Amino acid sequence: MKTFLGKVVKIYPVLPYVALGLWLSWCYIAYCGIAWLSASETNGENISTLYIVSSISFAVVFLAATFFAPRLRKALSHPRFTVTGGVIASLGCAIIIVIGPYYLSLVWPFEVIRFLFYVGCALTGIGTALLALKIGELYGGLSPRKVILYVAFSHITVAVIYYIVIGTPVWQPITGGPSFMGILSFIGLPLLASLFAVLSFLVSRENTSSNTQLEDTPVYEESRVKFPRSFWKLVVVTFVFSFTVFALRSALITFSPVDVTFELSSLVMLLRMVVSLAFVLAAIGINGERFSFGKIYSVIMAFVVILIAVCSIVGVMHVVWAQFITLISYVYELVLWCLLAFIVYQKRISAVLVFGFGYGAFMLGGAIGWLAGVHVLPDLIVSPYSFVAYFALMALVLVCAFILFSEKEIDNLFRPHSAREASLDTLLGKGFPEEDKREAPSKKQGKFAAAIEEIASRGDLSQRETDVMRCLAMGYETLAIAKKLNVSWNTVRTHTRNVYAKLDVHSKQELIELVDEATHRVP
User: Fold this and answer.
1) How far apart are CA 479 and CA 345, in angstroms?
2) DSSP 19
3) pLDDT tens digits, residue range 235-258?
4) CA atoms within 13 A on the CB side of 437
5) Is the CB of residue 431 less than 8 Å from the CB of residue 145?
């Protein structure tokens, strides 16, 4: 069975990346309430509770993961870690269904039901966070053009699954409760996403001899990684954006009738599909130098400022306004996921760190913003000083988007800092090669080749040791080096130890720094 699935993945290598679309589908179905709310629901209070508790749990896991990056990278190399995430999330969903109206709430005290509801919400956040860490690692290994294409298709997948769920004939196990298809999608999507993500392990196993035990060798020592200052600015802006947008969205969902929320979700989903198709066409047909994420970012932020200004006039409960603010949040999420994957790919930094900080800030900002939208914004709306709150939000977004992290900062974020890195325009302009060959931009750099030869001569390295050193300096892991040089895994490990000993370095990070220093000295 494993061999068969491995062959299927080789024929359709996109299959593991479908996990992102399945996970995002669960997020949308869960947070709009269409899959698990019952007929007794009169407003979006329970939707708000699920989103807040689940998102905070998700953000805590993501941010905490950055402190345990080396261990988590090893854990991510085992399929059971990914499957465990899906099982935990599905268990949380099952608890929410079972304790809902028409089920155990009829026989158990309200306090017990409410406690279990919070437990179920927290489990969905924890489980989907573990799953998302693996998905982030998968996307961090793709070339930027493929990332744009696959992420856009993932958002189209969300729309397709959503319309399947709402278009399926309604059959309710208990009259008035959630539909069977809703229950099935709510509980099954996290587990299904984890199974698709696990497909990536089948290919790696076929490329590994049965008597070889793999050792996870991080591209960088995570504790010593230094992010560009622009990355931290992106994290701050992401938090502020998420806080602002979700604070405004939550007011409509919390206090609107459920049927209004569902109608709003359907229209937003249609617009989301249109935007995603635009990204697909852009990924296929636009050259890298013309595909400017900086301009896309500026347009998104400008729209947010305009929408806040409109909100001060028409009110936060205006349905048309709410559709636009919801859509803009999904577009930003699409762009953010792409940017984080680009950072992992270009700078060869652990996906646990990049997505942990970047997407963790997005989820934490959304959760805190939703709390503010539920408990603070309603009082501000009816106060005579509501315009002050709107003005403060606009000023905050303007400062963050056009002063702290402007369009120019995105260019700085992806500016090459060594001969090993190619510019984002170069990577976007590569199109869709049969394989992602990260060494191609480096081969064009004469300084890098000269530095390798100089270090090899100084350390009296053999030709094979020099080849291994070059691959190590370019960020390859042991298995990839063995495949590239057509030698065994153990041979690569032996040469690696010899290189470290002759050059008096103790890790791949120190070797990379040594090569960088030598590269800068080359005239």
Assistant:
1) 18
2) H
3) 999 999 999 888 887 766 655 555
4) 13
5) yes
DSSP 362-431: HHHHHHHHHHHHHHTHHHHHHSTTHHHHHHHHHHHHHHIIIIIS-HHHHHHHTS--STTPPPHHHHHTT-
Long-range pairs of 118-121 with CB within 8 A, sequence gap ≥ 24: 118/49, 118/53, 119/92, 119/95, 120/92, 120/93, 120/94, 120/95, 120/96, 121/49, 121/50, 121/53, 121/54, 121/57, 121/92, 121/96
Cα separation values, 479 from 137, 483, 484, 489, Å: 17, 6, 9, 6
Distance from C-alpha of 415 to C-alpha of 409, rounded to nearest angstrom:
10
At residue 461's C-alpha, the angle toward residues 457 and 462, to 5°, is 120
Using 50, 70 and 90 to split pLDDT, how confident is the model at 287? Answer: low
The set of residues, in sequence order, having a beta carbon less than 8 Å from that of 174 and lying 6+ positions away, is 102, 103
Q: Alpha-carbon torsion 156, 158, 159, 160, what sign?
A: positive
Q: 267 pLDDT exceeds 80?
A: no
Asked if residues 15 and 198 have their Cβ atoms less than 8 Å apart, the reply is: no
Euclidean distance between CA atoms 467 and 470, whole angstroms: 5
- Give whole-number Cα distances, 252 to 96, 239, 340, 348, 381, in Å: 23, 21, 30, 41, 12
For residue 457, CA distances in Å to 36, 92, 442, 451 come to 66, 59, 20, 10
Q: DSSP 3-state assignment of 479?
A: helix
* Domains delineated in the chain: 11-208+230-413 (1.20.1250.20), 432-521 (1.10.10.10)
Q: Cβ contacts of residue 231 below 8 Å, gap of 6+? A: 343, 354, 357, 358, 413
